[in-house]
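All the exercises in this workshop are built on plain-text protein records. The record below serves as our worked example for the rest of this section.
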Amino acid sequence: MARLGILCDLSHVGPRTCADVIAFAPEGKPPCFSHVLPAGLLEHKRNKSDEFIRAIGAKGGFVGLSQFGPHMRGGNESTIDDYVEALDYVIGLIGEDLVGVGSDSSEGHERPSEFLKWCNMDKGYARTLTPWGAQKVVKPLGPLAEREKLAEAMARAGWSEEKMRKVLGENWLAYLEKIFGE
């Protein structure tokens, strides 16, 4: 896939597939995790191990961090500052040039809904990945219209303007250029 210019996103695959795709990725066409959280902060089946995050980084790939509260260290009590902490954690593993926002946003859907219940099933039909029902699912970044609050949280954490620009979008653009550019 990578040789054909198709982005290989490993966010929803298991450990064996992650290992195989990372190992066989051609030079200059690395895979990514478009929307994951680090298992180093919270062990969960959907979160990716530090080992896999480092392996993606070693290939020059990209890691976008999901904003899904139940998979963050604070669960549904997670805040936007916890999200920035998770970004810093992954930056500590692979550097600030390979990390960005991977919101996995599902705006416009009531909670709970049949669609989101389906999304919460592994592969859409198998095991339930998080508790469901009337549970409020916190997404600490809030709706897309409120994303400026993320930059404010990054500034509170002492981030430089350059680091903020990279993580807020420039890193995504650089990664996509590797995959789709000439």
Q: What stands out?
A: Strands lie at 32-36, 62-65, 99-101.
